[in-house]
Amino acid sequence: MPLMYQSSDLILFEQCFESLGESDEKFIVIYNQGNLSKSILEEKLAYYKIPNVILGDGKNIGIAQARQKCFEYIWEDFKEVGYISEIHLDMVFPKNWYEPLIHFLETTDEPMVSPGILTSSGELQPVGQFIVLPQKKEDMISILESLAEEVVSERFVHPVIHKANALKAIGGYDLQFFKGKQGYEDDSLLLGYLYYMGTRTNWRPKCYLKSWVYHATMAQRMSVPDKHLDFQANKEGLFLQYGAYGMKHLSHLHQNQTFFDSLLKEFLQ
To answer: Where are the domains positioned within the chain?
Structure first.
């Protein structure tokens, strides 16, 4: 979990870790990217009884870079771990939210899976419906639990749970291509999984709606200076890594042909 704390995040911070603390499995690896000292962060996590490892020195090294540091730490120091989740600060989790997702991964050939998410606008993704957003965390969790159903939808959202061996097989994020602090890192990972599964499988990322999580999808990184330069650098890195056919495959993965066709035309000009 890359963590870049801002003062406006206090309520989200408390809701995220308070809800995580209710689950049976809650060990977390954090890469501290700024504005909270390690000692304060450790104190807060201890309050919520969350065992943890904190990496980083408070410098914003980038999203893909921080995630990769967390992956590599787990691969090296927790080789027995079978599943790795990517979570964000702006999330609220029902107790043991991961159990249906891990069961799904155990019983399928899928390398990764996401839950359904409820956003700050009240949208239920990936189903595209809207509900009135509750104000209290307890009411939020009750609604999330009530949404559970045996439905699999082809869509990618965060959070995501990976099979640790599949994630390691594709190498996580190839940082030699991603010089910017944010932008297109998820697309890189999805293409890695597509080629890992084989293009003949017509693989797409899945959401298993037996589990739901609140994800505010706040623009936490939009205040970072020169963000447009980061996005441009990573867009160029994505094309260097996967080329024209990668853009074609992304239009299939996201079911958004127009956007990635325009990217392809941009690079072919």
So the answer is: 2-257
Helix (H, G, I), strand (E, B) or coil at 91: strand
CA torsion sign for 68, 69, 70, 74 is positive
Q: Which of 223, 230, 158 is nearest to 190 (CA)?
A: 158
Q: Are strands 91-92 and 152-154 parallel, antiparallel or unpaired?
A: unpaired
Give whole-number Cα distances, 250 to 12, 106, 254, 261, in Å.
32, 26, 6, 9
Above 60 in pLDDT, residue 92?
yes
Alpha helices in the chain (DSSP H): 10-20, 38-47, 63-77, 99-106, 137-146, 164-170, 185-197, 227-253, 257-268
Report the CATH fold assignment for 2-257: Spore Coat Polysaccharide Biosynthesis Protein SpsA; Chain A (3.90.550)
State the virtual CA torsion across 260, 164, 153, 91 in degrees, nearest 10. -90
Which residues lie closer than 8 Å to 238 by C-beta, 6 or more apart?
177, 178, 184, 187, 188, 246
pLDDT tens by residue, 177-186: 999 999 999 9
C-alpha 25/C-alpha 78 separation (Å) is 14
Put simply, whether the predicted model's pTM sits higher than 0.85 gets the answer: yes
